[in-house]
Amino acid sequence: MKLTPAVLVVALVCHGDRPAARRAGELETVVQGTPFEHVFTVPNTGSTPLVIQRVSTSSGVVTHVDSVIPPDSAGRVAVRIELGSFVGVLSEAVRVEFAGHRPAAEFRVLRRVVPLVEVAPQPDVYFFTARGEPAQRELTIINHLPRPLNVLDVASSNPAFRPTVKPLEPGRRYQLTITLDTTTAVGQYQGVIRITTDVREHASLTVEGHAYVKDVVNASLAELDYSQLDFNALDREAVGQRTVLVQKYRGTDFRILQAVTDVPFMTVKVEPQKDGESYFVHVRIQQDRAPRGRFHGALRIETNDVSKRELKLPIHGEIL
Questions:
Q1: Taking the model in full, what pTM does it have?
Q2: Among 73, 55, 50, which residue's Cα sits nearest to residue 65?
Q3: What is the pLDDT of residues 67-97, one digit of tens each?
């Protein structure tokens, strides 16, 4: 009988052999660099002994195997995991092969490996909002080191992102709040929030900030790009039609009064998507009126909003 090194990541553990606390549906976690040993079971529901012939996977060391499993019972396999510097979602597969003609058993288990100083739930924040609307995100800095860690300072490379920090459990856990400046203009923004600590090996932690700020009334497309179209395929909706979603952020009485285009072989149809808030504007090429060649023009959308009476979207393309 031959047993090869194996690993089955069924339940990662940290701080001794205690399972990490987690909410239902979440992956169990283990701290970066923390080795652990786990025991899992291989059931034998048959009426004859089950013989494990081989256990194989990508990494790890088998420390114990019940090579013969009696009928109507379960055997034990123990594995030791050395994580090293890995951080992220750990996906490990194991294959247990048996003597005779018994099919092999295969497993794949996912677990999350967190850094020694963790920014949870992830070290980045995203804002998708409208100009002038308040928006903020909250993260937690978690110290898994054996010694305390104190946050000394927090600063942002971009004034659009305003960070503040407060202790939840001094030396162990801190709440990092990142607020998007309400004066931020329409556009896309990036920045780095840097957290300074008093632990030399983790003196600087970073969080990436991303913001996408739209007008209160906005369109899902900046232009209607038809690129190059096959004339014979223009009767197909997927080829000859473009759809724009026009919406008002937190709107209640928003309306599109009319939508027109100056391209003579195009038709425009407005369809409510959510009453008082959003509409679909469908722009379609009419094959029987469309000439071959390049074309350009504009789609004009008139609204009842005093801050954005009209949206104008360029149209261009070529019919081959």
A1: 0.71
A2: 55
A3: 999 999 999 888 888 888 888 888 877 788 9
Pairing of strands 61-65, 36-44: unpaired
Q: What does the buried/exposed string (b/e) look like for 124-161 if buried means 16 or more CB atoms within 10 Å of the residue's CB?
A: ebebebbbeeebebebebbbbeeeebebeebebeeebb
Query: Comparing 13-114 with 217-319, is the CATH topology the same?
Result: yes
Radius of gyration of the chain (CA): 30
Span 13-114 CATH architecture:
Sandwich (2.60)
Q: pLDDT tens for residues 85-141?
A: 888 888 877 788 999 888 998 877 678 899 999 999 999 999 999 999 999 999 999
Q: According to the CATH classification, is domain 117-214 in 2.60.40.10?
A: yes
Most distant CA pair in the chain: distance in Å? 81
> What are the extents of the domains in the chain?
13-114, 117-214, 217-319
The neighbour count for residue 216, using CB atoms within 10 Å, is 18
Residue 74, strand partner residues: 43
| CATH fold for the domain made of 217-319 | Immunoglobulin-like (2.60.40)
**Angle subtended at Cα 136 by Cα 132 and Cα 138, rounded to the nearest 5 degrees:** 175
Q: What number of H helices and E strands is found in the chain?
A: 1, 26
b/e per residue 282-320 (b: at least 16 CB within 10 A): ebbbebeebeeeebebebebebebeebeebebebebebe
